[in-house]
Design a protein that fits this description.
single chain; alpha/beta; Rossmann fold; Helicase, Ruva Protein, domain 3; 2 domains; two-stranded parallel sheet; 16 helices
């Protein structure tokens, strides 16, 4: 898709007009503007991530839902490259934190340092003070350092010496971890896992795509370092505001709550999905619908995203693990058995988001 930057700017900045004009604007037009910028951003990232448009789409869905993304896959499939490509495509600030066993919490959040020139303590920001924070191999840091992310991922602020400091918005943590190698790693605690909106695996490329990767490796245009920004941080904030206006019908909101509450009574689970998971699924569904150019959420949006948003929040009992059960299997069974709200048929009236 060949979309000019000026077209993106013109469409996104239409939201900055008077409130009266904004109120008269058709909801479908807002969703179309969002989808135009979304596809341009996806196409830009696809220059360096070959054959993984679905993974890119889901990662961007998480970004515009103001969530955090855990990229969990084997080494060498492009986890860090995807995170860096998203950061490079946004004309905002970004930081990369290499999580190692000797990393300190103050390296993440920041620290107060005494200044002799002013005779007072001065706050020096840590790595989380950026629009996009790339956490490399997050499970290699100690639990104490991992816990330094809990506050900022939930409240978008850090507290140092009883003083809160806000991080810039938009704000997203893109963390990577290797689920195969466990030497020298620490399991992420449930409280931190719950703060990731999605857990995503990129997977191996197809044979044809891997051949394209070999040839593109020597092309300057396919290097993350040469990837230009498509949207600004301000554009991202406006797109987030657009997703907040995507409509979820009451029946679909109830469907989300029924899904999450059903996991809390499963005998195979010692921990089901929390209300934070319900909220994350609703927000992700709004972003997913907007990316498709729709001003309303459908049941299919929820079913497509549920495995990515809910399964990492489902903690199995030891007995279920011994039986070879897994959270994906349990959730898919639940999706197949739980009745889906009836969809509004075409021609039966206006769309629920208008």
């Amino acid at each position: 898709m060949n979309i000019r930057q000026e077209d993106i700017d013109a469409r996104l900045h239409q939201d900055s007009g008077p409130h009266e004009a904004e109120g008269r604007e058709n909801a479908a037009a807002r969703a179309t503007r969002f989808a135009t910028a979304f596809e341009a951003l996806l196409a830009n990232i696809a220059k360096v991530i070959k054959g993984k448009d679905d993974a890119i789409r889901l990662a961007l869905t998480c970004l515009f839902a103001e969530g955090h993304l855990l990229l969990e896959d084997v080494p060498g499939v492009g986890k860090t490259t995807l995170a860096k490509a998203i950061a490079s495509s946004i004309d905002g600030s970004w930081q990369r934190i290499q999580f190692t066993p000797d990393l300190l919490p103050s390296d993440v959040t920041g620290v107060q340092i005494y200044s002799r020139s002013t005779n007072e303590f001065v706050f020096h920001p840590g790595g989380v003070f950026a629009n996009v924070v790339i956490g490399d191999e997050i499970n290699r840091a100690s639990p104490k350092t991992q816990s330094a992310l809990l506050e900022v991922m939930e409240e978008r602020q850090v507290t140092v010496d009883s003083t809160p400091y806000l991080v810039p918005r938009p704000f997203i943590v893109l963390a990577t971890q290797n689920p195969v190698e466990h030497d020298g790693t620490y399991n992420l605690p449930e409280a931190q896992i719950d703060r990731f909106m999605m857990r995503l695996a990129i997977g191996y490329p197809s044979l044809d795509d891997e051949v394209r990767i070999i040839y593109s490796d020597v092309s300057p245009a396919a290097q993350v370092e040469n990837l230009g920004a498509v949207v600004s941080a301000g554009d991202v904030r406006r797109m987030i505001a657009l997703t907040d206006r995507i409509h979820i019908a009451p029946a679909l909101a109830q469907y989300i709550v029924q899904l999450t509450s059903a996991t809390r009574t499963m005998p195979e689970l010692r921990l089901g999905v929390s209300p934070r998971g319900s909220l994350a699924l609703a927000r992700a569904s709004r972003s997913y619908a907007a990316a498709a150019g729709r001003p309303f959420v459908t049941a299919d949006d929820i079913k497509d995203l549920a495995p990515l948003v809910l399964t990492h929040r489902m903690i199995l009992t030891p007995e279920a693990e011994l039986q070879g059960r897994n959270s994906v299997e349990l959730l898919m069974n639940l999706l197949h058995t739980m009745p889906v709200p009836q969809q509004r048929s075409e021609g039966s009236g206006r769309d629920p988001g208008l």
